[in-house]
């Protein structure tokens, strides 16, 4: 979730630092395990030679795993965080993927690629666009004919408290979320509902990694953990979908 919606309450430099440290042990910045990430990417990349665009790529982990799975694919990522993009470049070089990855430091909502992507990724960063439907609209605008979108966003598993809405935003329940996507002209061809283990593992890593690596941010880690355990753990879920345009 790339530091989540709560990140908007922090200055950009502090937000970038906290996000990088908090995701050090869980580089997929969303509540998904490795097996789920691989399964989603395999369904999203049926040919293996696609051009991929990540709108809000953060440290680039989705793109790096996609390139590792699809040796003939190319990718580009967009993010406003210079530190996150520098991390992505270092990781790409270490994994031998740098020649197939291009990164852009700019607002994902204003980015137009030179080459229409066959796959658009936007997992845990729909808030950059103002929500799920605006993110899908941005993806549709640049997507190549016959392309796919891999999008991930939160939903309410049960009625949230006002405090949970304040922290995570105005989400819908799971059926309504899927209905909203299909009514917008998309066909789900695959999906993953994050398990309780994936959701908890993400939060334990977020809070623990930050506390361990930045003792000066212990109060931030503690606040996040308390919000998770006391406010939204029992009502928040996360859905990731592979979509194709209808018609």
The CATH class assignment is: Alpha Beta
Measured by DSSP, the beta-strand proportion falls in 15-25%
CATH architecture verdict: 3-Layer(aba) Sandwich
CATH topology: Rossmann fold
CATH superfamily: Vaccinia Virus protein VP39
Derived structural class: alpha/beta
Give the total of beta strands: 7
| Biggest sheet record | 7 strands, mixed
Secondary-structure element order, as H and E? HHEHEHEEHEHHEHHE
Low-confidence stretches: 2-8
Q: Tell the overall outline.
A: globular
> Measured on Cα atoms, how large is the radius of gyration?
17 Å
**Could you give the order of strands across the largest sheet?**
3-2-1-4-5-7-6
Gap from first CA to last CA: 31 Å
The helix fraction, in percent, is: 40-55%
- What is the helix tally? 9
When the domains are counted, the total is 1
Q: Compute the average pLDDT.
A: 94
Protein name: SAM-dependent methyltransferase
GO molecular function: methyltransferase activity
Pfam family, one: Methyltransf_25
Keywords: Methyltransferase, Transferase
